[in-house]
TrEMBL record:
Family note: Belongs to the 'GDXG' lipolytic enzyme family.
Keywords: Hydrolase
E.C. numbers: 3.1.1.1
GO molecular function, one term: carboxylesterase activity
Plastid listed as a keyword: no
Protein name: Carboxylesterase NlhH
Superkingdom of origin: Bacteria
Annotated ranges, domain Alpha/beta hydrolase fold-3: 92-298
PROSITE patterns registered for this protein in UniProt: LIPASE_GDXG_HIS (PS01173)
Originating organism: Lignipirellula cremea
Sequence segments annotated as region (Disordered): 46-66
Record has Hydrolase as a keyword: yes
Length: 326
């Protein structure tokens, strides 16, 4: 077989047809770019997108809590499988949205799906968003909440000895950083880290950034805006608590097992996969999965929630949580 024939057989990077239809509608809407809007207006765009598709939510018991740790008040939403008694294993959940967008309602369907399939509770952390709060406020709140649940989980029906961290997009970044801090600062003993299409570095120079900079939902310009809203100095961005990919192998060595999902058509694809490879090089157990034909936040976006590939990927994530917290 000739080289030309081999090239002809090579798969093209293209979206699944339902995903492409979603992108076509998004890209021809005429709406202003998200990064040009004031933060409150941008937040309403994500909220509106999520509420535009009304699917049935999986059953769950939901409660609100406020904790105080290290002089900070942090609000939590705990989502439990229904009709379960006693302390449950749990995963801390840090939401995506570029540190600027997103809240519990925009992520509720994703969280409930993971809870239903994993048979574990979720502890959603309502961290302070940017630009109103800057680095390291949000990650400090995420870490303090994780410490509190590990030490005091029984007060809210959680078994703090069976605890994982999870998050999507920048929430995946925060989950990775909380795992790093837990090791480097002798913090909670976590069972696993679930990083869903995560941000792992503050650079914008990967192949996936070049290929999918525009017209694939999450754009390069949006990520630049998100980083400018969150961490404003080069020193902040280069630190491992903002860019966990900068951690050394020695710093990674004792991290808990990781599951990392990436999307083929995502500017963040390459940095997520680079983090998986670096964890493996450091001796950390890693399961890395790329979902072809998908865009960033495929598991979050309610308009894509019924796609078989999305449902399969989320079942895989939930199964890994269940296995590690057993």
């Amino acid at each position: 077989m000739s080289a030309d024939q081999i090239d002809a057989l090579a798969p093209a990077e293209s979206a699944q047809r339902q995903v492409q239809a979603f992108l076509d509608k998004l890209n021809t809407s005429g709406d202003p770019p998200l990064e040009t809007l004031p933060p409150e207006e941008a937040r309403q765009v994500l909220s509106g997108l999520q509420s535009s598709t009304q699917g049935e939510l999986r059953p769950a018991e939901v409660s609100q809590h406020s904790i105080e740790a290290d002089g900070k008040q942090v609000r939590l939403t705990i989502v439990r499988p229904p009709h379960r008694e006693g302390p449950l294993p749990a995963f801390m959940f840090f939401h995506g949205g570029g540190w600027v967008l997103g809240d519990y309602p925009t992520h509720e369907r994703l969280i409930r799906d993971l809870v239903a399939e994993s048979d574990a509770a979720a502890v959603y952390v309502d961290y302070s968003r940017s630009p109103e709060a800057r680095f390291p406020t949000a990650i400090d709140e995420a870490y303090l909440a994780t410490q509190w649940i590990a030490a005091n989980g029984a007060e809210v029906g959680i078994d703090g000895s069976r605890l994982a961290v999870a998050g999507n997009s920048v929430g995946g970044n925060m989950a990775a950083v909380v795992a790093l801090r837990s090791v480097l600062e002798d913090g909670p003993k976590l069972r696993m880290q679930m990083l869903l299409w995560p941000v792992t570095d503050a650079r914008f120079d990967t192949v996936s950034y070049e290929r999918f900079a525009n017209d694939h939902f999450l754009t390069r310009a949006m990520m630049v805006w998100f980083w400018n809203s969150y961490a404003t100095t080069a020193g902040e961005r280069e630190g491992l608590y903002a860019s966990p990919l900068r951690a050394t192998h020695a710093q990674m060595r004792n991290l808990p097992p990781a599951v990392i999902q990436t999307a083929e058509l995502d500017v963040l694809r390459d940095e997520g996969e680079a983090y998986a490879r670096k964890l493996d090089e450091a001796g950390v157990e890693v399961v890395a999965l790329r979902v072809n034909g998908m865009i960033h936040d495929y598991g979050l976006l309610n308009p894509l929630a019924e796609l078989p590939a999305v449902q399969s990927a989320l079942r895989q994530a939930a199964h890994e949580i269940k296995r590690r917290l057993a």
